[in-house]
Specification:
Number of strands: 8
Order of helices and strands: EHEHEHEHEHEHEHEH
Radius of gyration: 19 Å
Helix content: 40-55%
Shape: elongated
Structural class: alpha/beta
Strand content: 15-25%
Number of domains: 2
CATH topology of the largest domain: Rossmann fold
Largest sheet: 4 strands, parallel
Length: 234
């Protein structure tokens, strides 16, 4: 049976890995497969160690929203290195590594975020979508599309502030303009950037990281990759 590995960036936050592991278990339960979390850095196991002795075919789902630097360069490089090691150490087995599409920014994510707004955002609060951010202008432009979609589904005005592109100062400026703010993190799990925003805006309300709400998207990416494999080998 094909196994699932979720691949997160990793974080110095002490609760980040706990959230990734819970998401991985939830997605694996949906699929009825073995699941394991792996990381690019900071947390363990790194991908190369998670796959070193994996005897079965495995699909890797990156826990990344945008198709930016990490998705285009870091992830393929780490997968290629893991394949080399696995080929040496699992020779003769059915081991293989297939890279699936990441979480992405599409209607599935908009639905998850809109549900969070309807559940969490106080009436009258201005909603701010708060992704980590990217230096890729095309990927960054997708944040606005997400905010527009969330706004349409919730009938709320939604601004975008990226944690690494303006971050706390832009949030404070919006708070001065709009008064009450509700911050909607586009974070998979806990992170230091999100903690800084919470500490800087004690009067704002915050949704929690998306966590388990992403399990259906992870399972969908796994199933799409598995279907492509089956079609290829049919």
């Amino acid at each position: 049976m094909t196994a699932l590995i979720t691949l997160a960036h990793g974080s110095r936050h002490p609760r980040a890995a706990v959230g990734v592991e819970a998401l991985t278990r939830a997605a694996a339960r949906r699929l009825g497969v073995r699941g394991q979390a792996a990381y690019l850095e900071f947390d363990e196991p790194l991908l190369i160690d998670a796959t070193r002795h994996t005897p079965e075919p495995t699909i890797i789902v990156p826990l990344l929203f945008t198709d930016a630097f990490h998705a285009r360069y870091d992830v393929p490089q780490h997968v290629a290195e893991a394949r080399e090691v696995q080929a040496r150490e699992c020779a003769g087995s059915q081991a293989s590594l297939t890279l699936a599409k990441g979480l992405g920014i599409d209607q599935d994510l908009v639905d998850v975020l809109a549900a969070r707004v309807l559940q969490d955002a106080p009436v009258g609060a201005h909603v701010v979508l708060y992704p980590v951010g990217t230096s890729d202008p095309v990927a960054a432009g997708r944040y606005g599309e997400v905010a527009l979609g969330v706004g349409k589904q919730t009938a709320r005005a939604v601004s975008v502030v990226a944690a690494t592109r303006g971050g706390v100062e832009e949030l404070r400026a919006l708070e001065r303009t709009h008064g009450a703010l509700h911050v909607l993190p586009m974070f998979v799990t806990h992170g230091l950037l999100l903690d800084r925003a919470r500490a800087a805006l004690p009067g704002a309300s915050f949704s929690e990281p998306l966590g388990l709400d992403l399990a259906a998207i992870v399972a969908k990416r796994f199933s799409q990759a598995l279907h492509s494999l089956e079609v290829t080998h049919a």
